[in-house]
Amino acid sequence: MTVVTNHRLGEPCWVDYAASDLPRAREFYTSLFGWTAETGGGEYGGYVTFRRDGHLVAGLGEAMEGTQPNTWLTYLLVEDADAGEKSATNAGGRVLSPTMAVGDQGRLAVVADPGSAVVGLWEPQQHRGFELVAEVGGLSWHELYARDYAAQMEFYKRVFGWTTTVLGDTADFRYETFGDPDSPSGGVFDADGMLPPGVPSHWVVYFGVDSAADATARVVELGGTVVRDPWDSEFGRFAQVTDPFGGLFFVHEVPGSIA
């Protein structure tokens, strides 16, 4: 089992879902991934924390001001959220939610990059982030679909200190991973020619499953939809789905099981 206790600066450390219907979203994701759910006290506005076999995986709450409901939000680890917010602004981003304290858990801000993709900044205190990587029921990958690829890559390198590795640099496939080249935590895809008109740049999350086919069947049973049936690539077997509210995510077959 791959349990993470420390995340690398500038890389994903948490994800949460901004729900228009918290009870139904909670039921969908716990049923799909076998997560348990804990609801925080009043100071956290009923925020739900998901765990898999006792390990932190993701969160669920109401949409914050400036963010879209029924979307997954990726948070990148920073040492100082105020400084990160200022750096994001100086690099051409926009502040959607100014830095705020979340009790003794940490401090967060939400910004839009120059391509309008929304991303969170997390300065940890008691809450150190998700604890499962590339495991069934855990996060397996984070990806930015970029419409303004060059400007957005420059933004993340400047604000978050990314080191990137080029996987493709052609008109048909332009893609870079970020983080340790031997164990990258995510990638950026030049999606301007692929995204439908009116769909802005956005981050997407991938969750580990035993079987992409079984997971997509379960998504449909629970009221979601399959956007793209399971397919094989050199990086594994994937499927693209939405929950009953239109929230998009991917499932990724990972080896082994933590059950």
Largest sheet: 8 strands, mixed
Radius of gyration: 17 Å
For the secondary structure, the number of strands is 16
Order of helices and strands: EHEEEEHEEEEHEEEEHEEE
Count of separate DSSP helical elements:
4
Output the strand order for the largest sheet. 2-3-4-1-5-8-7-6
Beta-strand residue fraction: 35-45%
Low-confidence stretches: none
The termini sit apart by: 10 Å
Structural class: alpha+beta
In one word, what is the shape?
Answer: globular
**Level of helix content?**
10-25%
Mean pLDDT over all positions: 93
Quickly describe the structure.
By secondary structure, this protein is an alpha+beta fold. The chain is built from 4 helices and 16 strands.
Describe the structure.
This protein is of the alpha+beta class and about 260 residues long. About 15% of the residues lie in helices and about 40% in strands. The chain has four helices and 16 strands. It has helices spanning about 20-35, 80-90, 150-160, 210-220; strands at about 10-20, 35-40, 50, 55-60, 70-75, 95-100, 105-110, 120-125, 140-145, 165-170, 175-180, 185-190, 200-210, 225-235, 235-240, 250-255. Strands 2-3-4-1-5-8-7-6 form an eight-stranded mixed sheet, covered by helices on one side. The protein has an eight-stranded mixed sheet with strand order 10-11-12-9-13-16-15-14, covered by helices on one side. Strand 7 (about 105-110) and strand 8 form a beta hairpin. The longest helix is centred in the N-terminal third of the chain and has 12 residues, at about 20-35. It is globular.
